[in-house]
Specification:
The protein is mainly beta. 5% of the residues lie in helices and 50% in strands. The strands form eight sheets. It has a five-stranded mixed beta sheet with strand order 2-1-5-3-4, covered by helices on one side.
């Protein structure tokens, strides 16, 4: 669309979802139409400086949902805008190039990472060993084993979920022999309290806590059944949905407060109202096997990873598989996807070839691509406040230990933003 009547002077308001230390008053500012991304950044830093705030960071700017890459006038022409009203320019932190920092090695596969705060990360192995690590010094660690059975290692293969609750960690584990174990671990001493174990008839393949009430958790099993559990003097089922999926339930998590999202081996992604377990919506991926999904808190955006390396973006309110955007760069099984907690437009993804990528949803190509380890699978990634972390492992039969590696984002920047993975 050709654009008419762009004057040499424009008016704009800068807006952001960043914290108070990056905010400026939302007042009209006069700008030249030929102002570039660099000009906007200089103006923003100058305004922050007048408020006594000096930040050694770079910013991204977007107008009508698209990143500003050239001048304001060329961008306005591209999106078909006029200067009849005040422009709303949204800004966010620009992610800097990652660099390797340190690593931690475990003797077992690390299948999950849980950031607790800016200074602590919890790693969990397939054999239900939970380790607390200091982000400042990975040698400072505390370890506890939950579901260990040396006589039969296969009994230890499990799914793990960790929830931070005041002075304790709630840890939920399950294995492929029908055991569910609930533990409360005192954060200071890492001592187990309130041990609960329950044996069920079907192998449990997915677990998740209810973040609103962590005394409630949900499980999915190999027969496609989802159950709601209550922690009291013992573990008890208070509700269940049979035939939620045709086969294994692969992942569960709470979305939109009273809604549960589930992924099944049948390649169906479903959203349920709880506690009624009435289906609200679904996405069908039967023609493109799904390996992982991540939903964004407080939005309807869902990212899905697929067996051939694609990452797709959807609106979970639509009962269809219409892709709003496709991200192509991975060449192999996508193992994990995580949104950046500080910048809703940034996410990271990993795959089984050892590749980790950082994306901006408004761009078509990765901001950064990192080859972490040759031919080593990455099982999970997670953002923390000041580092990118990932945990990964070679195959057990190779005899080599699994390891967790942390990679720092924008090491020279005062802005703390991080990612972790397995």
């Amino acid at each position: 669309m050709k654009f008419m009547n762009i004057s040499k002077d424009l008016f704009c308001i800068f807006k952001t979802s960043l914290g108070e230390e990056y905010r400026i008053p939302e007042t009209r500012i006069n700008l030249k139409a030929e102002s570039t991304h660099e000009d906007l950044s200089n103006i923003l830093h100058a305004i922050l400086k007048t408020r006594g705030i000096e930040k050694n960071v770079k910013f991204n700017f977007e107008l009508q949902g698209e990143l500003i890459k050239g001048s304001l006038s060329s961008h306005m022409s591209k999106v078909g805008m006029t200067n009849e009203s005040t422009l709303e320019i949204h800004y966010s932190i620009s992610i800097g190039a990652p660099s390797f920092e340190a690593s931690f090695k475990d003797q077992n596969w690390i299948n999950r990472l849980f950031p607790i705060d800016s200074n602590e990360i919890v790693s969990c192995t397939f054999e239900a060993q939970v380790t607390s690590l200091s982000c400042e010094d990975l040698s400072k660690k505390k370890t506890v084993a939950l579901v260990s059975d040396p006589s039969n290692p296969l009994r230890n293969i499990c799914t793990v979920e960790v929830f931070e609750d005041d002075s304790k960690l709630r840890v939920l584990t399950s294995n492929f022999f029908g055991n569910i174990v609930y533990e409360e671990i005192v954060k200071e001493s890492f001592v187990i309290k309130n041990h609960r174990r329950e044996e069920v008839s079907s192998n449990v393949s997915a677990v998740c806590f209810n973040p609103i009430d962590p005394n409630i958790f949900y499980t999915g099993d190999e027969e496609g059944v989802i159950k709601g559990w209550k922690v009291s003097s013992k573990l008890g089922v208070f509700n269940e949905k049979t035939e939620a999926h045709n086969g294994y339930v692969l992942k569960l998590n709470l979305v939109h407060q009273n809604q549960l999202m589930s992924l099944g081996k049948d390649n169906m992604l479903r959203i349920w109202d709880i506690p009624s377990f009435t289906q609200i919506s679904f996405l069908n991926f039967k023609d493109s096997p799904i390996t992982f999904y991540e939903n964004q808190t407080n939005t309807n955006c869902v990212l899905t990873g697929h067996i051939h390396g694609q990452v797709r973006m959807f609106d979970d309110r639509e009962n269809s598989k219409t892709t709003s955007k496709m991200f192509k760069s991975h060449n192999f099984y996508v193992s994990s996807i995580r949104f950046n907690p500080s910048n809703p437009s940034i996410f990271a993804s990993s795959d089984y070839s050892g590749s980790l990528k950082i994306w901006d949803m408004r761009a078509d190509f990765p901001l950064y691509s990192i080859s972490c380890h040759d031919n080593e699978k990455i099982f999970d990634i997670a953002w923390t406040s000041n580092l990118i972390r990932r945990s990964n492992s070679v195959h057990r039969r190779s005899g080599q230990p699994g390891n967790q590696t942390r990679v720092q984002l924008n090491k020279k920047s005062n802005f703390k933003n991080s990612l972790e993975g397995t």
